[in-house]
Design brief:
By secondary structure, the protein is α/β, with parallel strands linked by helices. The protein folds into two domains: about 160 residues; about 140 residues, Glycogen Phosphorylase B (Rossmann fold, 3-Layer(aba) Sandwich), CATH 3.40.50.2000. The chain is built from twelve helices and twelve strands. It has a seven-stranded parallel β-sheet with strand order 3-2-1-4-5-6-7.
Length: about 300
């Protein structure tokens, strides 16, 4: 099957392109946001093929995976030579994010499009987005297993936030100063340098994460972060806010999940000081992540949907 999708979310796409299909990744001369092509900091298989605008128009596309409003509005049909997703070609709209705004205003851009399927990555998102008459499906995250690499040799905690300054309170960036009064906190993530963060390749990020004692997830309101799931796969104990889907993803034995700052601070102190407990909770985190967010389950779920919409 030929699956067309733009490189929008590198970490999510890394798992997706490990499936059994041929993945057409648009690329333009400047590698702009609408033509990034293959990832440079993630390991993608050869089945993820870069295609220019001219090449896409000659391709026999079986399914289009849309991820942004302007892809649905005009970008996809422009690249496809006038073929419209949903109307002329089978298509799904993959929604990565939790909705923003007041509950009554959380209407999805693909609402009332029975010719599409909106795919949510968490049940929380499916509950909160209003998709009207458009069919919806929840396919939870799946990641390429990096293996249990946790050492916890550094008595420090790690946070991964992309765009930490711009996203601010949404990602809990403002909480880092408070956590740093309790334990040392290292920040990683794209475009987070103004706060002392590092932007590294996925392989390097996993090495750095695994050497820290605890993974901290301070996010107030976003979809379930893939960095959290990757940390659990690495075998890291987790301290996290109990928001959106986190309380479902992190079992009690894997760490501490709470909205009480004093509880989170106490957990950070204890786990940073006690490597044995950190290891035990990290082992539980890994077991839970492998079972729920394994790549095989993720790809099986996607295969089922793609075959359904392409039929």
């Amino acid at each position: 099957m030929n699956v067309l999708l733009w490189h929008v979310h590198g970490a999510w796409t890394t798992g997706f392109v490990h499936g059994a299909h041929r993945y057409l990744i648009p690329v333009d001369e400047g590698r702009t946001a609408d033509g990034l092509g293959r990832a440079r900091t993630y390991d993608w298989p050869p089945s993820a093929v870069e295609v220019t605008r001219a090449q896409v128009r000659e391709e026999d596309v079986d399914v289009v995976v849309l991820q942004r409003p302007h892809e649905l509005d005009h970008l996809a049909s422009e690249w496809l030579g006038g073929r419209r997703p949903g109307t002329d070609l089978p298509a799904v709209y993959l929604e990565h994010n939790a909705p923003q705004g007041r509950i009554a205003e959380m209407r999805h851009v693909a609402a009332d499009r029975p010719d599409l399927t909106v795919v949510h990555v968490t049940h929380f998102n499916d509950l909160f987005w209003d998709c009207g008459r458009t069919p919806t499906r929840v396919i939870e995250h799946g990641v390429v297993d990096p293996g249990r690499r946790y050492t916890g040799e550094l008595a420090r905690t790690v946070v991964v936030i992309n765009d930490a300054v711009r996203r601010g309170r949404v990602t809990g960036t403002d909480l880092l100063a408070r956590f740093r009064r309790v334990v040392p906190v290292d920040l990683f993530g794209m475009r987070s340098a103004p706060l002392g963060g590092w932007d590294v390749s996925q392989a390097a990020l996993h090495r750095e994460m695994a050497s820290r004692r605890v993974y901290v997830h301070p996010v107030r309101w976003t979809s379930l972060g893939l960095s959290l799931i990757e940390a659990m796969h690495l075998g890291m104990p987790v301290v996290a806010l109990a928001t959106t889907e986190v309380h479902e993803a992190v079992p009690p034995e894997a760490g501490v999940v709470s909205n009480r700052m004093e509880v989170l601070e106490a957990a950070l102190r204890r786990l940073t000081a006690d490597l044995d407990e950190a290891r035990a909770r990290g082992a539980a985190a890994r077991a839970a992540a492998v079972e729920r967010f394994g790549l095989e389950r993720f790809l099986t779920d996607w295969d089922s949907l793609l075959e359904e919409v392409a039929a």
